[in-house]
Predict the 3D structure of the following.
Amino acid sequence: MSKFFALIPAAGSGSRMGNELPKQYLSLNNRPMIYHAIHTLCQNQFIAGVFIVLAPSDTEWFKYDWSEFSEKLVVLSCGGLTRADSVLNGLTAAKQKNLVDTNDWILVHDAARPCLTSILLDKLINELAIDKVGGLLAVPVADTLKRSNTENRVAHTESRENLWQAQTPQMFRHDLLTQALRSTTNINVTDDASAVEALGFYPKLVLGDAYNFKVTYPQDLALAELIIQKRNNP
Ligand code: C5P
């Protein structure tokens, strides 16, 4: 039987937040942001283990107490120059340590999506567990999309038909994802699915929700905090 593992690439600097501290450690509800995704993943009944991929130079991680997750959490200090490098290095390290089988499912999740729920996680796993390729959470694009010219004027309006915003987790088998990321090391892939697509596969889109947004700019942090506070005190 294939198992399900989560992998969080957390070796980025988060420079768009304009902060010295990498974004995964910014305080969210009195915890480092990454805590919230780890909590949801470790609590999930299907998830056998959670791999955290850190930058080799990261000292911030060790300032916090992670012992409540010790049954499932594995730290791999092998992050790379890009997100894709960090995921690939994490997959390789987990295999070398015999923690995963090539047939196991890996759910790659961004540390910067703290509002993931167990309900969405269950939905993703249930919809993809017998899929031949795998897939990802995503939401249909809601806004009208404008293509700009070099003067920031509207060159034309894009059709939003069949357009989705990719989220995470993105769920693929260890062997397929490893092969996909290895073969795209020279291309700038911004998510795991695009590496799999480059091999000619068609990952499945599983309907997520807008709460599972990525904290990218400072105002996103305040919104995530409100959502988590509301969940903790309904
Ligand atoms: O910067 P961005 O929001 O695209 O990062 C997405 C995720 O990839 C974050 O969790 C970040 O820590 C991670 N990342 C990484 N290694 C890098 C760059 C980003 O693990 N070299």
Observations:
- Residues 4-232 form a domain with the Spore Coat Polysaccharide Biosynthesis Protein SpsA; Chain A fold (CATH 3.90.550.10).
- The longest helix spans residues 218-232.
